[in-house]
Amino acid sequence: MVWTLHHLFGIPAKSLIKAPMPDIRLRIELLDTDPLVWRRVLVPEQINLHRLHEVIQAAMGWEDCHLFEFECNGRYYGEPDDWSDRPIALARNARLKIIAARLKDNTFHYLYDFGDDWIHRIVVEATGFGPRLPSKREPA
User: Fold this and answer.
1) Taking the model in full, what pTM does it have?
2) Engineering a disulfide at 106: which of 44, 53, 81, 124 sits with its beta carbon 3.0 to 4.6 angstroms away?
3) Domain-located, residue 109
4) How much is the mean pLDDT over the chain?
């Protein structure tokens, strides 16, 4: 099953689309699990990484009670804090569309819970899906 914002958050589909916007399909894999735990989600390409964090939380069943960060091509995004030993850009200022276009191998990583180190590999499977709007059937 492909999870969408409608499925994850119960948002009416009509309220998600203000203007046609392509989507990105992601495969989210929780590493170091046997069997591999993974989810597939479809998100708007303009989503920021903070909102993507919320999508991952819902899709994986996490409760959003720990810190997180994304690592994309050696750059880190999250919520900067006093304990970090490296520069962290604000996740809410980074758009998935821009990140995805710069990926070398269509993958980036998401770390949740710095104590337990739940590392997720995120694979950009496909981009450019058009909005899924119902269409009227032509008479035969």
Assistant:
1) 0.78
2) 124
3) yes
4) 84
